[in-house]
Design brief:
Layout (H helix, E strand, L loop, with lengths): L4 E4 L9 H8 L4 E4 L17 E4 L14 H14 L4 E4 L1 H9 L4 E2 L5 E9 L13 E9 L2 E2 L6 E6 L2 E8 L2 E4 L7 H7 L3 H7 L6 H45 L17
Parallel strand pairs: 1-2, 1-3, 3-4, 4-11
Antiparallel strand pairs: 5-8, 6-7, 6-9, 9-10, 10-11
Helix pairs in contact: 1-6, 2-3
Length: 266
C-alpha cells in the first residue's frame, strides 16, 4: 500500500482543497486528522508517510496551553524536516512550520484579510517548488506574522507581512490561501468568526462577504493557474519520497528491511 499524505486540519471548514486534488491526482491517498478537537488521536509516524500538509485555523501557532495538539504538530514538523519528508503549510500551517523550527511569532502584527498582492522573489533558488515570480494576487486571512527560521529562504513578502512564503529544507510555508476554491470560500463565509474578520469598522458583514464572493470568483482561475505547479510539485515530491524510502528499505536480493510490508496480493 502506498504511504499516504497526512493532512492536519484545525477546524471544520479549512480543508486541503486544491492541494488535496493534486495529491490524489498523483496517486496518493490523504489521511486527515484534527488535533485541535482530538489532541490524543493516533498519528502515522514519519516513516509511514509520503508527506505532511498543515492547514489554516483561527488559533495562534504557539497556543500550546489551549491547544496541546499543536505541540504534536510542531514535533511532527521537526521530525519530517529532519527526515527530508515533504511538508506544506498554509496560513496557520506556515506559522507552525516557522515556529517549530525556531522562528518568533508576532501576534496581531497585521490584518490581511481579502485579496491583495504578494511579491515573490528568489523563486529561482528553489525551482523545484514551482512558485510563481513577481506580483501575484492571492487571498489572505491572517493577523499573526512569523519571522523566518534559521536556514530558511524567504520567497515572498507583502507590505504587511515580510514573510509570506518561505522554504526550509523539505518544508514550504505559504501565509496566504492558494488552495481555496469559490465553494470553499462560500463555506468560510457562513462562519460568524470569519465574517467578523472580513468586515472592517462600520462595514456591513453581508456587504463585505458578497463583495469578496464576487471578486474571488473572478480572480480564482488566475490564482489556481499560478499555484497549480506548486501543488503538483509538492505531490510529485511526496511520491518520490516514498519511492526512495521503499527502495532504501529493500536491499539487493529483495529482502525487505524496516517496517513490515504486505505480501503480494494482499
Amino acid at each position: 500500500m502506498t504511504a499516504p499524505v497526512l493532512v492536519l486540519v484545525h477546524n471544520a471548514w479549512e480543508g486541503p482543497g486544491l492541494i488535496g486534488d493534486a495529491v490524489e491526482a498523483a496517486g496518493l491517498a490523504l489521511v486527515v486528522r484534527n488535533l485541535i478537537d482530538r489532541p490524543e488521536d493516533d498519528l502515522p509516524g514519519v516513516a509511514e508517510l509520503a508527506g505532511v500538509v498543515l492547514m489554516g485555523g483561527p488559533m495562534g501557532a504557539t497556543d500550546h496551553d489551549a491547544h496541546p495538539g499543536l505541540v504534536r504538530e510542531a514535533d511532527l514538523v521537526r521530525a519530517a524536516v529532519d527526515g527530508g519528508l515533504p511538508v506544506l503549510g498554509v496560513c496557520l500551517g506556515h506559522q507552525i512550520i516557522a515556529t517549530a523550527l525556531g522562528a518568533d511569532l508576532h501576534a496581531g502584527a497585521t490584518h490581511e484579510v481579502g485579496l491583495a498582492s504578494v511579491r515573490f522573489t528568489d523563486a529561482a533558488s528553489r525551482p523545484e517548488l514551482g512558485l510563481p515570480a513577481g506580483e501575484v494576487r492571492v487571498l489572505h486571512w491572517h493577523g499573526d506574522n512569523v519571522d523566518a527560521p534559521d536556514g530558511a529562504v524567504v520567497l515572498g513578502a507583502s507590505a504587511g507581512c515580510p514573510v509570506q512564503a518561505l522554504a526550509v529544507g523539505s518544508a514550504l510555508g505559504l501565509q496566504f490561501h492558494p488552495e481555496l476554491t469559490p465553494a470553499m470560500l462560500d463555506r468560510w463565509l457562513e462562519e460568524p468568526e470569519m465574517r467578523a474578520d472580513l468586515a472592517g469598522p462600520g462595514e456591513d458583514a453581508d456587504v463585505a462577504a458578497a463583495a469578496l464572493h464576487t471578486a474571488f470568483a473572478e480572480e480564482h482561475p488566475a490564482i489556481a493557474a499560478r499555484f497549480s505547479p506548486v501543488f503538483a510539485s509538492f505531490a510529485r515530491r511526496c511520491a518520490n519520497a516514498r519511492q526512495e524510502a521503499a527502495t532504501a528499505d529493500t536491499p539487493p536480493g529483495g529482502t525487505v528491511t524496516g517496517r513490515p510490508r504486505p505480501a503480494p496480493g494482499r
